[in-house]
Amino acid sequence: MVEVTLVPGLVTDLIMGVIGAILGGFLFGLLGLAATGLIGSLVTATFGAIVLIAGLRLINRPRI
Fold first, then answer.
1. Considering only CA atoms, which of 57, 31, 59 is closest in space to residue 43?
2. Would 1 be classed as within a structural domain?
3. What digits encode the pLDDT tens for the residues 3-38?
4. Does 6 fall in a domain?
5. Is the pTM of this model over 0.90?
6. Inter-residue contact 1 to 20 (CB < 8 Å)
7. Residue 10: what pLDDT?
8. Quick one: residue 61, left, alpha or beta (phi over 0 = left, psi -120 to 50 = alpha)?
9. How far apart, in whole angstroms, are the C-alpha atoms of residue 52 and residue 47?
10. In the prediction, which pLDDT does 8 show?
11. How far apart are CA 49 and CA 20, in angstroms?
12. Three-state DSSP class for 64?
């Protein structure tokens, strides 16, 4: 059986960053928050990336 794993790298980081930014914008919209300007966009994208990474770690945590 072949095991497929994600190798961390530039492409994976870029994809996760884009998905995190989209997720952050969606979550900010649900919370009724609006971010404007460069700093607001960076905060939104960072928030989304943190939520995405935390969610992926919950899904992929080792099972005992």
1. 31
2. no
3. 555 566 777 888 888 999 999 999 999 999 988 999
4. no
5. no
6. no
7. 77
8. beta
9. 9
10. 64
11. 4
12. coil
CB 35 within 8 A of CB 43: yes
Residue 64 counted as domain residue = no
Number of structural domains (the chain) is 1
- Encoded amino acid at 40, one letter: G
Q: Which domain holds residue 38?
A: 12-59
The string over 29-49, giving b where at least 16 C-beta atoms fall within 10 Å of a residue's C-beta and e elsewhere, is eeeeeebeeeeeeeebbebbb
Cα angle, residue 13 at apex, residues 49 and 42 outer, rounded to 5°: 40
Query: Quick check: is 5 in a domain?
Result: no
Under 8 Å between Cβ of 49 and 12: no
